[in-house]
Design a protein that fits this description.
0% strand
Length: 93
């Protein structure tokens, strides 16, 4: 698990956690009436979710030269965090 010391290793995980927090705050604040426009939070969420893909690819290409057993847990955690953020957005909005 020494791969977390690189920014490209932990950045997608923190971005996903920030996206989950963004969804929770947005749904708590706007839970009463449905909105016509998505709002600023939704646009920030979409941009942050999209920016995680190039960061993860950069992590794969720069750290992927090492044995794959070392980067697989980090990639699995990145994918899991991305899925949690996407599921939170789907369920709470």
């Amino acid at each position: 698990m020494q791969k977390f010391n690189t920014a490209s290793g932990f950045a997608p995980i923190f971005i996903s956690l920030f996206c989950v927090a963004l969804v929770l705050v947005g749904s708590a604040r706007f839970c009463s009436p449905p909105h016509v426009d998505e709002g600023t939070e939704a646009h920030i969420f979409q941009l942050l979710m999209a920016v995680q893909v190039p960061i993860a690819l950069f992590f794969i290409f720069t750290r992927g030269r090492k044995p794959s057993g070392q980067i697989v847990p980090v990639l699995a955690l990145q994918v899991f965090a991305w899925g949690v953020a996407a599921a939170a957005a789907q369920l709470l909005t």
